[in-house]
């Protein structure tokens, strides 16, 4: 009886290995298929505002001369899949964008259960030309955003963790009048309980003095609590702060906002 059970177990193990090998082989063949052919098959199922153009290479390793999503068009998208993740039902790929308005390198990993990991060693985003392609035109925002060593995990519709640095250089906002903010920096870290907390500070002697925190919980609750002051109280920025914020007992003004957002599931 024991020998027979052992033989049965051995057969099931062999069958499982054969099935796993077959799945891996099929995934390999699919990944080697030309990218434009795969896109042609998948295009009817994609959102109407998403498009890839000038495809070359394969699903495994390829390039698109342009990609469009939500009205924003970028150039120079490339990707490379990692085979090991396919064996566990996940997806792992290196992404790169080399557009004059957006430069970014990223590692994107999606686990079988939908957990998404994002790693961005570096990135640069020019806000005005990209904002101009969207419906979100007001308030007009200026400057460039730089990302460094950014790591984030999303799961169950929430941000589970985020660490890294974000720098906003040449920051300016136009509502009724243009107000320059200077250079600002946010340092992100993951607090106990998950989510993320960022320390906001100004860099150098810019128009705005800032010291505060921003936070986002895994459940989607966000909060901003900062003390700000304009170096020129009589300028556009100083007058704007006086109208939109309450005075702080330590000088300057205090900004406090909170709300809730729902992040998409992947």
UniProtKB/TrEMBL annotation:
<keyword id="KW-1003">Cell membrane</keyword>
<keyword id="KW-0997">Cell inner membrane</keyword>
<dbReference type="InterPro" id="IPR022792">
    <property type="entry name" value="T2SS_protein-GspN"/>
</dbReference>
<dbReference type="GO" id="GO:0015627">
    <property type="term" value="C:type II protein secretion system complex"/>
</dbReference>
<comment type="similarity">
    <text>Belongs to the GSP N family.</text>
</comment>
<keyword id="KW-0812">Transmembrane</keyword>
<keyword id="KW-0653">Protein transport</keyword>
<dbReference type="GO" id="GO:0015628">
    <property type="term" value="P:protein secretion by the type II secretion system"/>
</dbReference>
<protein>
    <recommendedName>
        <fullName>Type II secretion system protein N</fullName>
    </recommendedName>
</protein>
<keyword id="KW-0813">Transport</keyword>
<keyword id="KW-0472">Membrane</keyword>
<dbReference type="GO" id="GO:0005886">
    <property type="term" value="C:plasma membrane"/>
</dbReference>
<dbReference type="Pfam" id="PF01203">
    <property type="entry name" value="T2SSN"/>
</dbReference>
